[in-house]
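Dear colleague,

Thank you for sharing your sequence with our group. We've completed the structure prediction you requested, and as agreed, I am returning the results in plain text so they can be pasted directly into your records. Please verify that the sequence below matches your submission; if there's any discrepancy, let me know and we will rerun it promptly.
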Amino acid sequence: MRHGWIYLYEEPPAEKRCEELLDHFGSRGISLAEPESGRVIRLSDEGKQVLSSREDILNHCKTDDDVFFNVYFGPSDNIFCAFHKINAGLLRESFNLDGKTESQSISIITILASLFATHAENGLALAFIADRYAELHRDFHWDDFVLGATTPPEWPLCMGFLKSFARLTDVPSSYHRVDKGNFVMFDAGGTDMTFS
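Please find the predicted structure tokens below.
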């Protein structure tokens, strides 16, 4: 299985969503600081590592359109995270699963699906997508599906959307559908997760 990327589409402010994300990860043993050194790493637009802090990352979320940083499962075992302001009313949060084991990937997907569920219930999240094929289709981006009329070249492992999302009828009927309050989750069968 290719592990690809996970995307969350949420309402701003970016610094508040980032703070909630870091707290959510932290409560599940994923740290902003590299466990052995205690260093917090933000990445520049050019991909250079910048020694940082939680406050620095939150400040950049407030002022910048793009913010890149790592969170850690363990020493030297990181997840690359990116916050992008699509427009004044929508953020895309991206999480790279490259180099993760199957069990780590499913764990991260489950953790972020849980965050999506919490935010969707409060009307703060529009979409959640776990795309194992992201690196195979470099010309396609999920922004084009979420905001436009483009259909993906391959459907992802699992997805979640507010029930008010206009494109729910485009999701193939082969997905296991779980309706929860004001959002719905779709699972292709590869995650063995129940959405709460």
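Summary note from our side: The first strand starts at residue 5 and ends at 10.

Kind regards,
the structure core
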